[in-house]
Amino acid sequence: MIHIKDIAQRPAKEDIEALSVFSPATIHEAQGRRGALSSRLKPVDYRMKLCGPAFTVKCAPRDNLMLQLAINYAKPGDIIVVSAGEYEEAGSFGDVLANACLAKGIGGLVTDTGVRDTLQLRDLGFPVFSLSVCIKGTVKETIAAVNDSIVLGGEIIHPGDIIVGDADGLVVVRREDAREAARLSQAREDAEAGFIAAYKDGKSVVEVSNLDAVLKAKGLLVDI
């Protein structure tokens, strides 16, 4: 029996807000270079950002029936995350469904298939990350799971994990790790601010990154 389920455990609102101020790159580095989704998944517009709990759904390739049901049952702020077999030759989502998402307050869409109506999606400002842009239509035939764990972009994503995305890409943070990931991300940003200040004070990248010992150990000779 296939069930449509809600997210069993949603992350705390304050944990989502804490992560939302950091870039996916910072979060990925801060949590031990874990959680980055495939770089093939790109935003429709570089200005698009998202951060929220994953509302996961499986779709058959070239079939958006379960995506439409996910939109129907997702809650405000949820990020709909669609596993559709990394099938590029289908436009499973466009401006009509984006308007449905906006009307419900859904926080964004991540899909490993194609989308279309990209000009309208940019105008609407609804955050969409996809594997491709494709005009080919889809069917509505296959029943599948909603809010089971899925694999997308090379990462396992559990319902309620936090998805963060911007122009550079996407990262997943386990719900239970969110607070620590935010703390480590802030520490990383503080350290990087120190590096930038040191550069402005005239220090070299070798000095700031303490590369002298590393270079000597590798036998690098500098004749400049």
TrEMBL record:
<feature type="binding site">
    <location>
        <position position="117"/>
    </location>
    <ligand>
        <name>Mg(2+)</name>
    </ligand>
</feature>
<dbReference type="InterPro" id="IPR036704">
    <property type="entry name" value="RraA/RraA-like_sf"/>
</dbReference>
<keyword id="KW-0479">Metal-binding</keyword>
<keyword id="KW-0808">Transferase</keyword>
<dbReference type="GO" id="GO:0008168">
    <property type="term" value="F:methyltransferase activity"/>
</dbReference>
<feature type="binding site">
    <location>
        <begin position="94"/>
        <end position="97"/>
    </location>
    <ligand>
        <name>substrate</name>
    </ligand>
</feature>
<dbReference type="InterPro" id="IPR005493">
    <property type="entry name" value="RraA/RraA-like"/>
</dbReference>
<feature type="binding site">
    <location>
        <position position="116"/>
    </location>
    <ligand>
        <name>substrate</name>
    </ligand>
</feature>
<keyword id="KW-0489">Methyltransferase</keyword>
<dbReference type="GO" id="GO:0046872">
    <property type="term" value="F:metal ion binding"/>
</dbReference>
<dbReference type="Pfam" id="PF03737">
    <property type="entry name" value="RraA-like"/>
</dbReference>
<protein>
    <submittedName>
        <fullName>S-adenosylmethionine--2-demethylmenaquinone methyltransferase</fullName>
    </submittedName>
</protein>
<dbReference type="GO" id="GO:0032259">
    <property type="term" value="P:methylation"/>
</dbReference>
<keyword id="KW-0460">Magnesium</keyword>
